[in-house]
Write a structure and sequence with these properties.
Length: 210
């Protein structure tokens, strides 16, 4: 049975977004293809971050290489980089290590049965990643334009007064995570046990200097 790894990412580091839907959909695909899921890597980090600043993505790729994983499953190509160059760098790394890639949104698989990229794979990857990059830039432009108009009309950006959580509130909200960190549990295990993203655990660890 071929081994698969799931990598998911959402941009928000708050609890407003989660990776549950991505994981569920990719698990369903793995079950349909009779793939053994060797690992699930979930990341909450801005899509504007460089791949070198995405610790879970880096960990997922290293895990695939170290454990002879056959295929990496992602919800869409844009999960693999903030621009076309970074996406292509990841794709080349996968090809060099004979690791296939499945993109659910695009319904596209990188390698053929002989673990070679299909004839049109490089063109498809370059086109799709460029389109994703342009879409992000258009969204960014519209957001910045909207903010500028809002400020011009007298609006104020930032948190409302009193909306920032105190240290004591955070200690209470994240007491289970803090307790597990102090016991020496790994970030991934804590994230799984507490049903939060790895980035949340990393943030609490850093904030409380555990």
């Amino acid at each position: 049975m071929m081994k698969a790894v799931i990598y998911t990412r959402v941009s928000s580091t708050t609890e407003r977004q989660n990776t549950e839907r991505q994981v569920a959909d990719l698990k369903a695909y793995a079950e349909y293809r009779k793939l053994e899921i060797a690992g699930v890597f979930e990341e909450k980090i801005s899509g504007a971050k460089k791949n070198s600043e995405r610790p879970i993505l880096v960990e997922a790729l290293e895990y695939c290489e170290a454990n002879s994983i056959d295929i990496l499953l992602v919800s869409e190509l844009s999960r693999l980089g903030r621009n076309a160059f970074e996406v292509l760098e990841v794709v080349k790394r996968l090809v060099d290590n004979k690791i296939n890639l499945f993109m659910q949104k695009e319904q596209f698989t990188l390698l053929d049965e002989n673990k070679q990229p299909s004839t049109f794979a490089p063109i498809m990857i370059a086109t799709l990643s460029t389109c994703a990059q342009l879409e992000r830039e258009n969204i960014k432009f519209r957001l910045n334009s909207g903010r500028a108009q809002y400020i011009a009309k007298g609006g104020k950006l930032g948190r409302r007064t009193g909306s920032v959580k105190t240290i004591e509130q955070k200690k209470e909200e994240y007491k289970e995570i803090i307790a597990l960190l102090k016991k020496g549990y790994s970030i991934r295990n804590i994230a799984s046990l507490c049903k939060v993203g790895n980035s949340t655990v990393q943030r609490i660890k850093k904030e409380f200097k555990i």
